[in-house]
Description:
Helix content: under 10%
CATH architecture: Beta Barrel
Strand content: over 45%
Structural class: mainly beta
Number of strands: 14
Amino acid sequence: MHKTIVAFVVALFVTTAAGEVVERPVIKPNDSWTYTNTIEKNAGWRQTHDEITVVRANETEILVTIQEAGSKIPPKEQLTGPDWSRFRSVNGHEKVVNRPFTFPLSPGKTWELEYTEDHPNREYLRQQFHSNYKVVGWEQVKVPAGTFLALKIEAQGQWTADLAPSVSASASTRVDNAGSISVTRANKSAAQTATGRTYKAFWYVPEVKRYVKTVEEYFGPDGVRNERYSYELDSFKVQ
Length: 239
C-alpha cells in the first residue's frame, strides 16, 4: 500500500476513534497477558517476562495471578480494582495509590489522585503524592505483541516528604604529654522537607482489555530520575 494511502487510513482511524467513549471492559476468568517488565532503579537494571492471568472478576475487584515466565516458583495472587487500579494499606486504611483509568474514557477527561503516608520508610516522617491524570488521545503504539491504536493517558505528579531529624556522632582521640583523650561529638540535623516529581503514561487498547504499554518515572529533589518502571505487551489471550 502506498505511504500516502497508509497515512490517510491511519488518520481516518484516529479521527473515528477520537469521538468514541471507551467503556469498562468485561474481564473474564482465564483472560491473560504477558508483559516484558523492565525495572531501572538508581544504577540497577533488570528485566523479566510476567504472565498475568485472571482468576475471578466482579463489579468490585479483579483477582489475578502473576508469575515470571518459565519460573517454577508458585504464582503470586493480587487483587486490583475493577478499573485495574492498585490499592494497599496506607496508615491502616485501604487506599488507591494508582488509578490509570476511570471508565468511561474519552479524550480530554481528567481526574486526580492524592494520598499521604506516615513513616513510609526510615528517612521520611511523612510523604504525600499528588497526580493529575488526563486522557491525551488516540495514537499508534508498537510493542512486541504488535502495533495497536491506543488511548494514551498521562499523569503529571509531585511528591513531598518531611524528612526525619537525624543524629550523627563522630569520635576523635587527642594525644599529648599528659596522655590521650577521646572526644565524641554529636551532630543533630533538624527536620527538613523535600519534593520531587513523578510521570506516568498508559496506552489502553479496548480489544486487549488492558494497557499494552506503561511507563512510571520518579524524580528526586534535584530533578534526576531515580526510578523507572515499564511494561510492554508480549502476547495476550482474552475472551
